[in-house]
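Reopening: structure tokens for the 2NL complex, inputs below.
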Amino acid sequence: MDTLKARYLAAVANAADEAGLEEVRVGALGKKGEISGLMAGLGKMEPEARKAAGASLNALKDEIDAALRARKVALGDAALDERLKTEWLDVTLPGRPRPRGTIHPVSQVMEELTAIFADMGFSVAEGPQVESDWYNFDALNIPPEHPARQEHDTFFMHRAEGDNRPPHVLRTHTSPVQIRAMMDQGAPIRVIAPGRVYRMDMDQTHTPMFHQVEGMAIDRNISMANLKWTLEEFCRAFFEVDKVELRFRASHFPFTEPSAEVDIRYSNVGGQLKIGEGDKWMEILGSGMMHPKVLAAGGIDPDQWQGFAFGMGIDRIAMLKYGIPDLRAFFEADLRWLRHYGFSALDVPDLAGGLSA
Ligand code: 2NL
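Re-run output (same inputs, fresh job):
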């Protein structure tokens, strides 16, 4: 009995893990285990001998059982200690930086110019990108034979078979939004209409979808002088320079009379463009006094009211302000490309028109 006990206690002590321990338990106390076998043999003994052997076998069983439990706890503790040694977390490690998205240059410029014109009393108007030909062309005094109305230049939406009404178009400018604003709000009115416009044009410097902002101010005594001041004020704030110089060149648009194309003075020193100085001129927008027919189409009496209007490409002025050299930056660029041009995320203009840090 004593050798049995010594053998099993040694086996328990030597078990290296829970599986080894279970092997020892099954060998001793399992259904076919050695101790269980001896206990089964008690029935064949004389009552006296059975009593003594039974008592010591039970004591042995209890002792082995207790040793097994103790060893199991010890092995569990050791395993936990081992895990704690290897699986530790350094909670003082700094977090891994995650790349943040940035606002798109076109979106940022829209926010900037919206804030600048808001300071001058202009609100923002929006409208549909799919327009009727009346809003996109007729209301703007663009005659049916005008090149913009040919299949070639404008995206026309198909009508159903047998529907002979004139097709809708993807708006070619945001002027229709201004017509709608005139009809909805009447005069006096000051609005800008920024948004997407579409023309069938695709080369190094043109994309079929681009962004435009148009603006207009209609009141009792609006003149070209108001137009000039408004555009100069806008350019000073937008390009963040104290002095800008604009040049108004006589031009022609169907929707304004008189009309002027506007150039801004700039210099180019080794590829570095500077606005407001130098001996170069760059065309940045078209403008004029609103044509009486266009005022009338918007439901405003041209004998009572005058207005100025202008239109400019947002993509272009975004490229100019942020020194972005070509259109690919807008369509194929990743964030590294934008950062390369000094474009930081979430810079928004403050009320003075400057960029906050
Ligand atoms: C250009 C020319 C211009 C306008 C847009 C306008 C809108 C209405 C009435 C009269 Cl509702 N005019 N818009 C006026 C002059 C020029 O844009 O070259 N844009 C890039």
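Confidence is low (pLDDT under 50) at residues 345-357. Residues 42 and 50 are 6 Å apart (CA to CA). Marking as resolved unless the reporter disagrees.
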